[in-house]
Amino acid sequence: MKKTLTAILLASLILLACAACGGAGEETEISANSSQASVPPVSTELVFVHAGTRVVMGGNPEPVLAALGKPLNSYESISCAVDARDTTYRYQGFELTVTYPSLGEPYVMGVHITDDTTAATPEGLYIGSPGEDIQRLYGPVTEDSGFYYCSKGLTRLGLHVGSDGAVDQIFYEYLFLDA
To answer: pTM value?
Structure first.
C-alpha cells in the first residue's frame, strides 16, 4: 500500500515530457555529457523523447530546458527525497521535474506524460493504449497494484492500467536513492 501511494504521489509530481510521434529529423540526446545520437525504433534505454530531444533521467537539465523552450508554466516545491527544491515545468502533454540540490548540480528527476495530445514513449505507448501493449513493447515487467514497472540502469518507467484496461498513467523517474 505504501509503495502504491508513493508511486501515485511521485507520478503526480513527476512531469512527463511529450514525444512527437513520427517526426522527421535528427533526434538529439540531452544527457549529463550532452552527446548526440539517433533513437532506434525500439529503445534499449528508458528515455523520454519530445520533438527530437532525448530527456535522460539523472541528466543535466539545462540543455533539455533550452531545447524544449518556454514551458506553459512551472511551479516549485521542497523535495521530499533530498535537501533540494524541485521545479516542475509543464509543457503540452507532459511535465518535466528538475531537482536543484542545495549542494551539487541540478538533474532531471522525472517526466510525467499527462495526456495523449502530443506525448508517447519512444516505443509508441500513450495514454489510452491497450494495457496488453505494455509487455509487447517492454517485455517482462514488474506489477504492483495495477502499476507496471520496467527499470534499466537508474531509470524506471512506471505505467498504470485503469479499470477499462487502458493505460492511464505513464511516468519516468530517476532512481538515485536505489543506487
So the answer is: 0.73
Q: What separation, in Å, do the N-terminal and C-terminal C-alpha atoms of the chain show?
A: 23
**pLDDT tens for the 179 residues of the chain, in order:** 433 333 333 333 332 222 222 222 333 333 333 333 332 233 457 999 998 999 999 999 999 999 999 999 999 999 877 889 999 999 999 999 999 998 889 999 999 999 988 888 999 999 999 999 999 999 889 999 889 999 998 999 999 999 999 999 999 999 976 54
- The three cell numbers locating residue 54: 532525448
Residue 94: enclosing H or E segment and its boundaries?
A: strand 94-101
Tell me which residue has cell 527525497.
Answer: 81
Burial class (CB in 10 A: 0-12, 13-18, 19+), 46: buried
